[in-house]
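User: quick one, sequence for these C-alpha cells?
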C-alpha cells in the first residue's frame, strides 16, 4: 500500500502564507501525495507549482461553516477549477440538515457536484460528523450519494472534533460502494491512518502526511 497516494497534504489554517503553500507543494512533489488541499486564494499558486507532478490541487467551497448560500458555493467551485483545482471539498448546510430540510441539503450538494463534474473535478462532501447525531450522519451520507458526490468526508478540522473510526465505519455502512470516504481531522500518526483505512476510508486528509509516510518507510 502506497499510503502517500491516499493522503491529501493539507494546509487550511487561517494564517497560512504563500511561502508555506510553496513548501507544502514542494513536499507534495517529493512524497507523491494524492493532493494538496488549500484555501481558494492559493489554488493558482499551487497548481503552477505542481504542474507535471502526480499531485493534484484540492480546494474548498463553503468552508468551514457550510453556511454560505448555494450560489456562493457554486461560484467558489467554478473559480477554483478555473484556477487549477481538480478536487473540491464542500461543506453541507449543517443547520438545514439538523432542521430536517433534506431537499435543501440535497440540492445544495447537487449544485456543487454538478459544477465540479462539469469542470472535470471530483467533489467531496464534508458532513462535519462531530456536530451530528448518528441518524444525521446517515442522512447526510445518503443525501450526498443521492446528489452524486464522489466522496463523503468526515470533518473540516475546524469543529469540536475530527475523524473517528466509529464514524468512518458508519459512513461506509451507509454509502457502500456508491461513494468513497475521506477521513480528516486529528489524524497524525501511521496508526491513526491505518485505523481509518481499515474502517473504510479511501483518502486521508492531514497536515501530518510527512510524519505518516516517514513512519511507514521506517518499517521497511
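Assistant:
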Amino acid at each position: 500500500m502506497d499510503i502517500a497516494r491516499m493522503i491529501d497534504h493539507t494546509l487550511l489554517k487561517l494564517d497560512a502564507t504563500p511561502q508555506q503553500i510553496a513548501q507544502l507543494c514542494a513536499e507534495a512533489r517529493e512524497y507523491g501525495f494524492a493532493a494538496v488541499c488549500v484555501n481558494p486564494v492559493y489554488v493558482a499558486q499551487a497548481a503552477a507549482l505542481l504542474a507535471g507532478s502526480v499531485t493534484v490541487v484540492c480546494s474548498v467551497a463553503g468552508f468551514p461553516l457550510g453556511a454560505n448560500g448555494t450560489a456562493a458555493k457554486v461560484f467558489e467551485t467554478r473559480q477554483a477549477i478555473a484556477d487549477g483545482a481538480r478536487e473540491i471539498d464542500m461543506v453541507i448546510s449543517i443547520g438545514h440538515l439538523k432542521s430536517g430540510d433534506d431537499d435543501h441539503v440535497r440540492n445544495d450538494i447537487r449544485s456543487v457536484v454538478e459544477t465540479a463534474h462539469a469542470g472535470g473535478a471530483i467533489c467531496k462532501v464534508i458532513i462535519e460528523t462531530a456536530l451530528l447525531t448518528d441518524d444525521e450522519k446517515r442522512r447526510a451520507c445518503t443525501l450526498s450519494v443521492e446528489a452524486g458526490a464522489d466522496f463523503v468526508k468526515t470533518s473540516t478540522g475546524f469543529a469540536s472534533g475530527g475523524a473517528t473510526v466509529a464514524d468512518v465505519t458508519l459512513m461506509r455502512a451507509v454509502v457502500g460502494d456508491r461513494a468513497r470516504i475521506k477521513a480528516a481531522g486529528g489524524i497524525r500518526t501511521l496508526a491513526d491512518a491505518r485505523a481509518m483505512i481499515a474502517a473504510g476510508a479511501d483518502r486521508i486528509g492531514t497536515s501530518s502526511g510527512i510524519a505518516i509516510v516517514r513512519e511507514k518507510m521506517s518499517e521497511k
